[in-house]
Amino acid sequence: MIQRAGHDIIVIGASSGGIESLLAVVAGLPRDLPVTLFVVVHVPPDAESSLPQILSHAGPLPATHAKDHEQIRHGHIYVAPPDFHLLLRNGYIRIVRGPKENRHRPAIDPLFRTAARIYGPRVVGVVLSGMLDDGAAGLLAIKQRGGIAVVQDPADALFADMPRRSMEVVDVDYCRKKDDIAPLLIRLSREEVKEKTAPVPEQMKKETEIEAVDMDTIEDQDKPGTPSVYGCPDCGGILWELEEGELLRFRCRVGHGFSADGLVAAQAERLDDALWSAFRALQENAALARRLAARARANGNDDLASNFDKRARSAEENSEVIHGLLTQANPPLNKSQDS
Fold first, then answer.
1. Who contacts 92 (Cβ-Cβ below 8 Å, separation ≥6)?
2. pLDDT at position 33, please?
3. In whole angstroms, what is the distance from residue 161 CA to residue 81 CA?
4. Which position has the higher pLDDT, 124 or 221?
């Protein structure tokens, strides 16, 4: 890939509601645009993704699923395949089934972070519509290395969380409606990169190697951040806490990464699973105790039957408590209490 003076590495992240925005961006780009686009959209791991075909039909630039060790070419759109992170290296691509970030694979932050590490001020990061805050940490990394940060106007996004959260933690350069992003990218591609490349922070180096499943980095006891009191919702390991200005993040020994919002969401999901599992176990325990009580009573052993009846009642009472937690979790606030 020939290095140019302009911003020729464009990384785009989208989630819920982001396909519509992405199509608007791609449709507005010319065929001869001397840049390379890399796209991550949150998709289920077992999904059949037709996004490259959709993007190829939306605009003049060809789009394909990225392949491991594929050489980077200008005038092309590379899309992260389902269940794989899209990472950038010097002149080529890595496709890695690495640890999930913010419960996603592919995730936006690994793409943005590796682009920032390798290409510095040549990078333009774009965060489109989506829920929670994947992309904010990656956009911050792009800014740290002298790149350009762009977000879709939250008022223009179907889901405003991702662009809004990015704006809260990153001093973004441009906030644009989806139809105005393509003209901006065209202009930036022609502007000379004047920002000097800042040194790559050691934490960024380590995180990008962990994301690429580099075993030497994973086994290194010198982890980025400081140990926290929280466990990883994905593997149970200790989470290391990383603070970057207003941004608080967590990463475990094997590399699962979470923003603060992502960790709360993951903990809530695991708690919900645990409560349903406990509810099922108590219901089964009560049913078995009732059956054993009936058998004991049929055999004339009333004392044993009474003992099993007590166990059944205790299990049923506990299951009712858990059922209440499951069905009434985070109920709507009473307006009279909220005033």
1. 69, 70, 71, 72
2. 93
3. 24
4. 124
Residue 208 is assigned to a structural domain of this protein: no
Q: Is 83 a catalytic residue?
A: no
Same domain (yes/no): 79, 122: yes
pTM, entire model: 0.84
How confident is the model over 161-194, as pLDDT tens digits?
999 999 999 999 999 999 999 999 999 999 988 7
| Number of domains, the chain | 3
Does residue 158 share a domain with residue 50? Answer: yes
251 and 118 co-located in one domain: no
Q: Which of 8, 109, 134, 161 is catalytic?
A: 134
Give me the domain span that covers residue 15.
9-190
Calculate the alpha carbon distances from 34 to 8, 126, 158 in Å. Answer: 7, 17, 30
Is 42 noted as a catalytic residue in this protein? yes
Residue 159 within any structural domain of the chain:
yes
Q: pLDDT tier at 330 (50, 70, 90 boundaries)?
A: low
Annotated active-site residue in 7, 42, 85, 104: 42
DSSP state of 38: E
Does residue 109 carry a catalytic annotation?
no
